[in-house]
Design a protein that fits this description.
Layout: H1 7-27, H2 34-41, H3 45-51, H4 56-73, H5 85-102, H6 107-114, H7 120-147, H8 156-177, H9 181-195
Helix pairs in contact: 1-2, 1-4, 4-6, 4-7, 7-8, 8-9
């Protein structure tokens, strides 16, 4: 049974999670210990174990959940309103702006590269994030079809998958090369593909 926290308790727990997330983004999960997290979040050892009884493993799962939420939050409100081609372009600009600003310290990299997917619970978080992200994109592609802005024969699910792959692949290459052009080009090509005439 999940414990219900007071407002103060929830704020303390959130402070610990956010402090840990910021450290992991910069230092990497292998280089961050509980003492580092306590220092970054201004919490005592007893507080940390009060909210995360299983220690680092428990806390890392909470960080993974937090980072998954940040991946979506960083794209809002544009991701939630992809109803016109103009709004799709605004979302594209938002995605590029976010990943350009974050570079090596992005939520997606922290979740997939730093926290990893070896733990089934973390893998479930990544899968849930992917499904949610894909669903937003599919709603947007469907809206363009219904308004006549793209060909009615466009496959909604496949198009959403291609766009999602362009963002995640471009972001991964940005992490490894520090070149934003991969993300810019992949996302531009994926979106332009929506408007190409179908045979």
């Amino acid at each position: 049974m999940e414990r219900v926290l007071t407002a103060k308790g929830a704020a303390t727990r959130q402070r610990i999670v956010e402090g840990a997330a910021q450290l992991i983004r910069v230092e990497g999960v292998q280089n961050v210990g509980l003492d580092d997290i306590r220092g970054a979040s201004s919490t005592s050892k007893s507080q940390l174990f009060h909210y995360f009884p299983d220690g680092k493993a428990d806390l890392m799962l909470a960080v993974a959940q937090y980072e998954a939420g940040q991946v979506i939050a960083d794209q809002m409100p544009q991701l939630g309103d992809l109803t016109t081609w103009r709004k799709w372009q605004a979302w594209r600009r938002r995605v590029i702006q976010v990943y350009d600003a974050q570079r090596q310290a992005c939520a997606l990299s922290a979740l997939t590269a730093q926290l990893g997917t070896a733990n089934p619970a973390t893998r479930d978080i990544v899968n849930a994030l992917t499904d949610e992200w894909h669903a937003y994109l599919a709603v947007g592609v469907r809206a363009l079809k219904e308004s006549g802005e793209i060909d009615a024969r466009v496959d909604v699910a496949k198009s959403a998958s291609a766009i999602l792959a362009a963002v995640t692949g471009g972001a991964t290459l940005l992490q490894s090369t520090d070149r934003l052009s991969y993300l810019e080009d992949a996302l531009t090509e994926a979106l332009d593909g929506l408007r190409r005439p179908r045979r």
